[in-house]
């Protein structure tokens, strides 16, 4: 099954997302911030990345742009996951280049449906 990289500074979120993903057969790798996430993505080339937006050392938007600038990682779809959901955030984050957007707290069914849809769309 596909390798998914979860980038979030909150250990509880990483644990929850990892649990849900592993339960349906995905392989999961974690990173604690955007800088570490960019490094891990370049090392392992996951099929999909789930990324928090507000993190220390490097925020999710900056990390996305770093990945988009790299030949190795520019085609990996990245889903923005944020607890600071405001009107217009979805559109703004999609315009930045995120493949999709999920707000926290997540709905586990919608979470897995979004992930499956993006992975199936990769062919």
Summarize the structure.
This protein is α/β, with parallel strands linked by helices. The protein has helices spanning 11-23, 34-44, 60-68, 89-96, 108-121, and strands spanning 3-7, 27-31, 48-52, 78-82, 100-103. The protein has a 5-stranded parallel sheet, sandwiched between helices.
Q: In words, what does this structure look like?
A:
- There is one protein chain.
- With 123 residues, this protein is an alpha/beta fold.
- It has five helices and five strands; from the N terminus they run βαβαβαβαβα.
- It has a five-stranded parallel sheet with strand order 2-1-3-4-5, with helices on both faces.
- Strand 1, helix 1 and strand 2 form a beta-alpha-beta unit.
- Helix 2 runs parallel beside helix 3.
- It starts with a strand and ends with a helix.
- The model has no long low-confidence stretch (mean pLDDT 94).
* Annotation, overall tally of beta strands: 5
Structural class: alpha/beta
Shape: globular
What is the count of distinct domains?
Answer: 1
**CATH fold label:** Rossmann fold
**What is the CATH superfamily classification?**
Response regulator
**CATH architectural designation:** 3-Layer(aba) Sandwich
The span between the termini is 13 Å
Order of helix and strand elements from N to C terminus: EHEHEHEHEH
Residues in β-strands, percent: 15-25%
Helix content: 40-55%
Backbone CA Rg: 13 Å
């Amino acid at each position: 099954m596909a390798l998914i990289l979860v980038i979030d500074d909150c250990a509880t979120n990483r644990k929850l997302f990892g649990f849900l993903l592993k339960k349906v057969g995905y392989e999961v790798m974690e990173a604690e911030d955007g800088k570490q996430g960019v490094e891990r993505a370049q090392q392992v080339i996951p099929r999909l990345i789930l990324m928090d937006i507000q993190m220390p050392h490097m925020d999710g938007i900056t990390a996305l742009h770093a990945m988009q600038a790299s030949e190795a990682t520019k085609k990996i779809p990245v889903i923005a996951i944020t607890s600071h959901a405001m009107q217009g955030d979805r559109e703004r984050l999609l315009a930045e280049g995120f493949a999709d957007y999920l707000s926290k707290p997540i709905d586990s069914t919608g979470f897995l449906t979004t992930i499956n849809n993006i992975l199936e769309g990769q062919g």
